[in-house]
Specification:
GMP Synthetase, Chain A, domain 3, 21 helices, five-stranded parallel β-sheet, 4 domains, alpha/beta, Rossmann fold
């Protein structure tokens, strides 16, 4: 049994960054297994939540590669370490990592069919208006979303939430749907992404069920929540279908919430018909949270995660991590997990040790550093990579560099394209080309994984 579990871990280790593997997979042990059931040990309930939320698909895939399919993975707390009691030491600002009880609530399902791309996504637990921390960066977006959910916006039923990744646009989008369902305003809410909308349409065309697809969105939908509309770039057929769907919904006085990283006018290869409809409604933007808002976000997240974090530590994390909410969560998770798993007091020194890797990675990874890394690995010059050359030995590294720049930096696609002397649309084409090859598990798949590990380890 130990040998079998070692093989599983070996599979997972190939796919995860080393620090993620060490923190979340290495401590897990295999307790028991049969043909369809796997029982794994975990140090605590916080650890189990993290595994279920982020690593369950990776575990299932690793078992599948070893011939174990159609399985149910169960986690059990087996740690025998006793937690020390809280020390009241305000001068040091250090608390033992005591795990507090958390109230659990059932995740809300959306109406639809059994297949995932036919019933939309599930709302994420905690993505409600009550759990959204409002600051100067998000006050207007929050007010507009709440007003739309309550039916108090006059003149338009369309809302476009603009924000970079990790700033809360998904939270507000889902909060609208959650509010309308729980307050019995409407039960016919569809929450999906532009990519899933496209896949569902293609599936319907191939299976000759396009009329059911149209009926679902045009006649059986009261609220449509569509995320990541920038994905529609260049997808002419999907754009035309969505534009017609919007006409039906708006004529019937239905509500539509869009979210994206770019304004409709800035999305390349978006036809005028759809662009005009996306621009009809109220456009709101969520910016980067200021220091005071970041502190309040961390305090709210600490309560949700179930950890008592000293004010000094909370303020330190808010000071050091200032890019987005996901980064704040990552820092808070790291501090709480290390304190709890290792039995350390949660204090400034612990926070510094955890945040050191995050802040170093943040300052090192830039478009220019990625460009230099790719040039070095493929033995080409920086003049080559920004040139107009269409030789394969230049084009492939350039596409990978653009893809990695998009993945590891928060720069908009337009700026990334400019860094490689390419137009916005060309940069998007490069990203899509790499994503297609990654799905095929070609040689490029190995090359991108190799470069990703170098970037994540800071070896730029």
């Amino acid at each position: 049994m130990e040998s079998f579990w070692k093989q599983v871990k070996c599979q997972i280790k190939k796919t995860l960054p080393e620090h993620s593997y060490r923190m979340w997979i290495e401590p897990v042990d295999l307790l028991d297994h049969d043909k369809h059931h796997i029982k794994l040990s975990s140090p605590n309930s916080f650890f189990i939540k993290r595994l279920k939320d982020n690593y369950l698909p990776i575990l299932e895939e690793a078992f599948l590669k070893l011939g174990v399919d159609d399985i149910n993975i169960e986690f059990m707390v087996t740690s025998k370490r006793k937690l020390c009691s809280k020390k009241e030491n305000k001068n040091l600002g250090a608390y033992p990592a005591v795990h507090l009880p958390i109230k659990r609530s059932k995740q809300l399902n959306l109406p639809g069919l059994n297949l995932r791309f036919n019933n939309g996504r599930l709302f994420k637990k905690g993505f409600t208006f009550d759990d959204f921390v409002v600051g100067e960066n998000s006050n207007f977006a929050y007010s507009a979303s709440l007003s739309l959910a309550r039916g108090k916006i006059k003149g338009s039923n369309i809302l476009y939430i603009l924000a970079k990744t990790g700033l809360g646009k998904s939270h507000l989008s889902q909060a609208v749907g959650y509010h309308m369902i729980t307050n019995s305003i409407s039960k016919r809410v569809y929450y999906t992404t532009a990519e899933e909308f496209t896949n569902e349409m293609i599936f319907s065309l191939k299976n000759k069920t396009i009329e059911k697809f149209k009926e679902k969105y045009r006649e059986k939908c009261d609220v449509l929540i569509l995320e990541n509309v920038h994905f529609l770039s260049g997808k002419e057929a999907t754009q035309n279908e969505l534009a017609l769907t919007l006409d039906y919904l708006l004529d019937a006085d239905k509500k539509v919430i869009f979210s994206g990283c770019e304004l409709p006018d800035d999305i390349p290869k978006l036809n005028d018909q759809l662009k005009s409809r996306l621009s009809l409604g109220l456009v709101t933007e969520i910016g980067v949270p200021d220091y005071a808002t970041r502190v309040r976000i961390l305090k709210r997240k600490s309560k949700v995660f179930g950890y008592d974090i000293p004010n000094q530590v909370t303020e330190y994390i808010a000071q050091e991590l200032c890019d987005d909410v996901r980064q704040l969560e990552s820092g808070l998770f790291g501090v709480a997990a290390k304190g709890h798993l290792m039995g350390y007091n949660i204090d400034i020194e612990l926070a510094k040790s955890v945040l050191a890797n995050i802040t170093k990675a943040k300052t090192r990874i830039t478009v220019e550093s990625i460009k230099k890394l790719v040039c070095k690995e493929f033995s080409i010059t920086q003049e080559d990579i920004v040139s107009a050359s269409k030789k394969k030995r230049i084009v492939k590294p350039r596409q990978m560099a653009i893809f990695l720049s998009r993945k590891y930096t928060d720069q908009p696609i337009k700026k990334i394209g400019n860094s490689y002397n390419k137009y916005h649309a060309t940069a998007i084409y490069a990203i899509n080309a790499v994503e297609r090859e990654l799905k095929q598990k070609s040689v490029l798949f190995e090359q991108v994984n190799y470069l990703s590990k170098k970037i994540e380890s800071g070896k730029l």
